[in-house]
């Protein structure tokens, strides 16, 4: 009921894949039924008999042999759909499957506290399953064996503390009513004991205290470098990428249709390092940055993604600084130092070398107005409160230096390939992450890159793309309609 803010992205995650979509609505007043019909669902408007009975009503209306049951705040990931397709194509002896569920709490995806992997039974054969007739958290009764999927459902469960308290009150009242009807009573000492045990189990035994810490582990980082027919700049960028103080990372060059010279540069760089360097390529059909970045994401093995343009040269501690700022529930938008045409030319023709650049060198460049900043090259600041951006703000969003957790990027279906030509596909990406509860940090005085000069891209579609971002912010849409799932299934 009243799930218009959530259910659109839920249906988008399956609408081009499922044979049918069935929605049962119980008195919504926010336009939920109309939105679901617009997205191709068969909608039944009924009373609310409780969670279990309502699910059984929906099950009775299904026509397909297999049923995937989703709540409005859940999303089927492309990887999960691929696993389901495999068993539908090849057959299975099981009557149902469990899948892990990755849930967010107040904008942060939880990794402990019993919230992960949180296996739930959601795919089953229609004629071999039904739900228990209870009003809260019904169980699935399965006639047959249960298999396991590895890929998760994404669950945007509780966006803020207010909803957490509202859900706690609703579920506790419903649970108390069920126990009362069964003739069970509880004492004050039992209530205190249950509460104390729940805290010990969740916070200590299930390692919930780790969810409160910043993600500082030595996770693998995937650096995705976008490029198009600028092999001299790419060679300089890759040389710096492969000379980092941090060593636990891979480099993926996302190539928007470059020719053989670019392939040669990548091969030379790969041959000079033990780090993993890979190359994804698509035909040259105009500016399609979103599509090639999605291919890079699909190739990535890292838990954390850093997006870098092939004309943005990182400093030696670039990855280490991004790692230090990485925090569950947050993305980082990095900063850049602009180099003019003359300094860019000197660097690319090797008349000047970055490996020999010192304070005197950069002071001379700044005084000659060949670069627009000096201090961020030598002053590095730690994570602090002023990095955190309140709300959504356009300023500072640039995909030439941007980092986010892989699970968050998959949860919004990556970059939206509906954006054509230059402009605002990065703002759309950040806006949908923001709608999904991921907040933004600014990476100034930590993650600066040297942005080589280049001619400006034509901005014919900038106005249209800007309007698309405004629509995303207004609708609170999360899912890219033409996004990462296409790259994952190709």
TrEMBL record:
The keyword Transferase applies. Keywords: Transferase. InterPro entries: Galactosyl_T_C, Glyco_trans_2-like, Nucleotide-diphossugar_trans. Residues 393-439 form the Galactosyltransferase C-terminal domain. Gene3D superfamilies: Spore Coat Polysaccharide Biosynthesis Protein SpsA, Chain A. It comes from the Eukaryota. The keyword Transferase applies. SUPFAM superfamilies: Nucleotide-diphospho-sugar transferases (SSF53448). One of its GO terms (molecular function) is glycosyltransferase activity. Residues 2-126, 222-351 form the Glycosyltransferase 2-like domain. This is Glycosyltransferase. It comes from Linnemannia gamsii.
């Amino acid at each position: 009921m009243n799930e218009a803010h959530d259910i659109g992205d839920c249906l988008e995650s399956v609408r081009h894949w499922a044979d049918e979509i069935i929605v049962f609505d119980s008195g919504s007043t926010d336009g939920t039924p109309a939105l679901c019909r617009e997205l191709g669902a068969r909608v039944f408007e009924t009373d609310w008999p409780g969670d279990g009975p309502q699910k059984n009503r929906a099950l009775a209306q299904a026509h397909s042999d297999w049923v995937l049951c989703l709540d409005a705040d859940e999303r089927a990931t492309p990887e999960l759909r691929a696993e389901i397709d495999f068993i539908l194509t090849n057959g299975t002896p099981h009557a149902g499957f469990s899948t892990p569920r990755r849930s967010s709490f107040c904008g942060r995806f939880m990794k402990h506290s019993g919230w992960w992997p949180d296996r739930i039974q959601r795919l089953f054969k229609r004629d071999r399953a039904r739900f228990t007739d209870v009003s809260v958290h019904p169980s699935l009764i399965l006639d047959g064996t249960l298999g396991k999927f590895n890929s998760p459902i994404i669950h945007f469960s509780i966006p803020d503390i207010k909803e957490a308290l509202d859900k706690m009150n609703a579920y506790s009242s419903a649970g108390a009513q069920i126990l009362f009807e069964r003739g069970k009573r509880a004492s004050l000492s039992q209530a205190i004991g249950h509460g104390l045990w729940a805290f010990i189990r969740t916070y200590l035994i299930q390692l919930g205290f780790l969810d409160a810490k910043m993600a500082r582990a030595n996770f693998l980082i995937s650096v995705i470098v976008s490029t198009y027919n600028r092999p001299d700049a790419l060679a300089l960028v890759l040389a710096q990428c492969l000379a980092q103080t941090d060593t636990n990372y891979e480099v993926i060059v996302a190539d928007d249709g470059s020719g053989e010279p670019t392939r040669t540069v990548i091969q030379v760089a790969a041959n000079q390092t033990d780090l993993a360097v890979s190359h994804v390529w698509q035909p040259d059909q105009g500016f399609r940055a979103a599509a090639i970045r999605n291919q890079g994401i699909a190739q990535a093995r890292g838990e954390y993604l850093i997006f870098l343009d092939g004309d943005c040269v990182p400093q030696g501690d670039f990855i280490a600084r991004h790692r230090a700022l990485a925090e569950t529930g947050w993305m980082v938008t990095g900063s850049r130092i602009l180099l003019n045409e003359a300094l860019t030319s000197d660097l690319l023709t090797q008349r000047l070398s970055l490996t020999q650049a010192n304070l005197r060198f950069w002071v001379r460049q700044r005084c000659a107005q060949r670069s627009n900043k000096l201090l961020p090259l030598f002053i590095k600041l730690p994570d602090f409160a002023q990095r955190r951006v309140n709300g959504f703000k356009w300023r500072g969003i640039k995909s030439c230096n941007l980092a986010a957790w892989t699970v968050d990027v998959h949860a919004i279906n990556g970059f939206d390939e509906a954006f054509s030509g230059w402009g605002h596909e990065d703002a759309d990406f950040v806006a949908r992450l923001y709608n999904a509860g991921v907040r933004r940090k600014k990476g100034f005085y930590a993650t600066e890159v040297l942005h080589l000069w280049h001619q400006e891209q034509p901005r014919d579609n900038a106005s249209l793309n800007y309007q698309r971002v405004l629509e995303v912010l207004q609708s609170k849409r999360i899912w890219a309609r033409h996004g990462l799932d296409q790259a994952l299934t190709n």
